[in-house]
Design brief:
Length: 263
């Protein structure tokens, strides 16, 4: 059984469920969009990062009118660009949907929203600014935000519901805050943009594969899902070779992959 299949099959009774809509970093590929994860529990649906080319994948999983909230980690378009089609689909439907709660760092969506001059689209988002240390209750979900090092303000988030916790870095360089965010998480979704150690301007602001796994292990996360993968790079062989039998269980994000909380 492949590691990915093992991750998919950890389902016991359905509790919190996470579906990878896209796991590509930088730009989408023919097979996968950029960052986008649908988190479901107790009939609620939270969309984490509506990145480039994730809206069509979202449509295959849920009715846009049934999304309860959106979390945006940061302003880079591979993490937020497809908020626009989501808002359009809600604003221009008959009748129009209620404004969608969108949690994001201050100013992160200003340029994106300004690029769509349709007034109804502007009104379709109920923007809620969050920052390092913010804690928010969203129905059955508790969300805790932590700033992680990146080129722009980037908020990782930890979502808890029904006794299960899932952490997600957005984009974030190695930092003690990542380990804190992922402490004892059932699933840690970790940006691992590069398969090899990072040099140059991204050093400290993005994370390589080995460091992402190390941080997940240091946090005591049960499973680490590596994501934000550089288009074209091959992660599966490396992960199988290095972490095939390790703890925590390590998997590589693929569009359509589903994780469910253990019973
Ligand atoms: Zn980024």
């Amino acid at each position: 059984m492949s590691i990915a299949a093992e991750v998919r099959n950890t389902a016991g009774m359905a509790k919190m469920k996470v579906t990878v809509i896209g796991g590509q970093g930088a730009w989408p590929t023919a097979d996968a969009g950029c960052s986008g994860y649908l988190v479901e529990a107790s009939g609620q649906r939270i969309l984490m990062d509506p990145g480039w080319a994730t809206f069509q994948g979202l449509l295959r999983l849920a009715d846009p009118l049934e999304i309860d909230a959106v979390l945006v980690s940061h302003s880079h378009p591979d993490h937020c660009a497809d908020l626009l089609p989501l808002l359009r689909s809600r604003a221009l439907s008959e009748p129009a949907a209620d404004p969608l709660p969108v949690y994001a760092p201050a100013g992160a969506l200003d340029h994106l929203l300004a690029s769509d001059a349709v007034g109804a689209v502007q009104r379709a988002a109920d923007l809620r600014v969050v920052s390092d240390g913010s804690k928010v209750r969203m129905g059955e979900f508790d969300a805790a935000f932590a700033e992680l090092p990146h080129h722009v303000t980037n908020l990782g988030v930890r979502l808890s519901a029904e006794g299960t916790s899932v952490s997600y870095t957005g984009d974030g360089g190695p930092d003690a805050a990542v380990v804190e965010l992922a402490a004892d998480a059932d699933l840690h979704i970790a940006e691992a943009t590069f398969a090899e150690p990072i040099t140059g301007e991204d050093a400290g602001l993005l994370t390589d594969l080995a460091t992402a796994v190390e941080q997940g292990a240091a946090a005591g996360a049960r499973q680490v899902l590596l994501t934000h993968l550089w288009p074209g790079a091959s992660y599966d062989e490396i992960v199988q070779e290095r972490y095939g039998h390790s703890s925590p269980l390590v998997a590589v994000a693929r569009a359509g992959m589903t994780w469910q909380a253990p019973a």
